[in-house]
Specification:
The chain has 18 helices and nine strands. With about 500 residues, it is α+β, with helices and mostly antiparallel strands. The protein is globular. Its cofactor is heme.
């Protein structure tokens, strides 16, 4: 038997196995478009605008449907009711993290974002407790954000009102907040170590959002053997992990258990306590700390900086909104003290604007993949343990029943008839349920303090007529980013 015949037989067997597997697996799953063998429904999905494709599928198959991204099924939740029923009402069953092949290589079920089971619960509990209480040294998290807001304003003053692209400066500020929380100290914006870390993170965000990574996630075992940007991403992660590890070793040498300075110190103290009290292996290890710190940087830097960048663009586009926010800043805060989180409760319009920015920009249209932790009966379907779950946050944040004219930027979506702030259950930019973003409170604090401090000190001047500004998001595989723009920061 010749090699060509053997190859044809092997490929035929793979094809038949793929067809059998897909057909047998689809019997009790939600309906969906018929998948092709091996590649699934990939050719039926517009990679450039996945959200639009999901909306079209939901119109045919309903709010819960199945897509095959490769040979494995992914159940899609579209619309508030389906998302709430799964992530909140059946939160425990839907609390798993879906497969991310690149993350599995680097995280190995450690850290906060990509871990599962007992490890995830322990790391999440520790991170939430540390971020909420933060009895570290003399400075609270709010004070650290205020300090960075002041440094941000000083950096913007250096532009002297000249037109500039704010991307780099707005990237430095949230990254420095994470540095302050994890490493104790912030960096100067020109510090070489800081610039190197920023470069690695920024490059990885671009790589992770590229079509190549979507292909890699479908066929990781095959693509691992060929060159590509996934290799660059792994090198960048290794660089960041080595930097974090070096910092951990420095902290070990200067640790004072009675006076923790940052998250690393708190983790090291927890490690010592676990070593004394438990005989079983602990989740609190040096490698676990390294991955947890990496997760905080990855989740808390690019997302916040992109939101800030989008915020300034929307504020320029809608000068009447900006004028009302500045009026509220003058009335509640004034010009002679820094904004603080207590101010937010007295600033309903500004609070509504912050919420509307996050709703409108729809930063993470698909969130991160979930997975079911056991065989689950959901509505009239059976979803097998380990099945990936894709939640369309766009379908919730842009639901016309909750937000009239959802594609229009309107702070009124979060205001009642009396001008008071109005909460909405549909506000899910950080997802919802047990996997809701650990850094939600920090991100909302940064957004409020950075933007109010900027508007307290500057007028935003567009280089063109505000009506001509383009605010349409540049969609990619991961984050919705604003189009590039320039502006001038005119001191008040």
């Amino acid at each position: 038997m010749g090699p060509v015949v053997v190859l044809v037989l092997v490929l035929s067997c793979l094809l038949l196995f793929s067809i059998w597997r897909q057909n047998s697996g689809r019997r009790k799953l939600p309906p969906g478009p018929t998948p092709f063998p091996i590649i699934g429904n990939i050719l039926q999905v517009d990679i450039k605008d996945i959200t639009k494709s999901l909306t079209k599928f939901s119109e045919v198959y309903g709010p819960v449907f199945t897509l095959y991204l490769g040979m494995k099924p992914t159940v899609v939740l579209h619309g508030y009711e389906a998302v709430k029923e799964a992530l909140i009402d059946q939160g425990e069953e839907f609390s798993g993290r879906g497969r991310f092949p690149l993350a599995e290589k680097t995280s190995r079920n450690l850290g906060i974002v990509f871990s599962n089971g007992h490890t995830w619960r322990e790391m999440r509990r520790f991170s939430l407790m540390t971020l909420r209480n933060f009895g570290m040294g003399k400075r609270s998290i709010e004070e650290r954000v205020q300090e960075e807001a002041h440094c941000l304003v000083e950096e913007l003053r250096k532009t002297k009102g000249s037109p500039c692209d704010p991307t780099f400066i707005l990237g430095c500020a949230p990254c420095n907040v994470i540095c302050s929380i994890v490493f104790q100290n912030r960096f100067d914006y020109k510090d070489q170590d800081f610039l190197n870390l920023m470069e690695k993170f920024n490059e990885n965000v671009k790589i992770l959002s590229s079509p190549w990574m979507q292909i890699y996630n479908l066929f990781p075992d095959l693509i691992d053997y060929i060159p590509g940007s996934h290799k660059t991403a792994l090198k960048n992660i290794a660089y960041i992990k080595n930097y974090i590890l070096k910092t951990i070793k420095d902290h070990e040498e200067s640790l004072d258990v009675n006076n923790p300075r940052d998250l690393i110190d708190c983790f090291l103290i927890k490690m010592k306590q676990e070593q004394k009290n438990l005989k079983e292996p602990s989740e609190f290890t040096t490698e676990g700390l390294t991955i947890a710190a990496l997760d905080l940087f990855g989740a808390g830097t690019e997302t916040t900086s992109t939101t800030l960048r989008y915020s300034l663009l929307l504020l320029m586009k809608h000068p009447h909104v900006t004028a009302k926010v500045k009026e509220e800043i003058d009335h509640v805060i004034g010009r002679h003290r820094s904004p603080c989180m207590q101010d937010r409760s007295q600033m309903p319009y500004t609070d509504a604007v912050m919420h509307e920015i996050q709703r409108y920009i729809d930063l993470l249209p698909l969130s991160l993949l979930h997975a079911v932790t056991r065989d689950v009966k959901f509505r009239d379907y059976i979803i097998p343990k380990g099945t990936n779950i894709l939640t369309s946050l766009t379908s919730v944040l842009h639901d016309p029943k909750e937000f009239p004219n959802p594609d229009k930027f309107d702070p009124g979506h979060f205001l009642d008839k009396s001008g008071n702030f109005k909460k909405s259950d549909y506000f899910m930019p950080f997802s919802t349920g047990k996997r809701i973003c650990v850094g939600e409170g920090l991100a909302r604090m940064e957004l409020f303090l950075f933007l109010t401090t900027i508007l307290q000190n500057f007028n935003l001047k567009s280089l063109m007529d505000p009506q001509d500004l383009n605010t349409t998001p540049v969609l990619n595989g991961f984050i919705s980013v604003p189009p590039s723009y320039q502006l001038s920061f005119i001191p008040v």
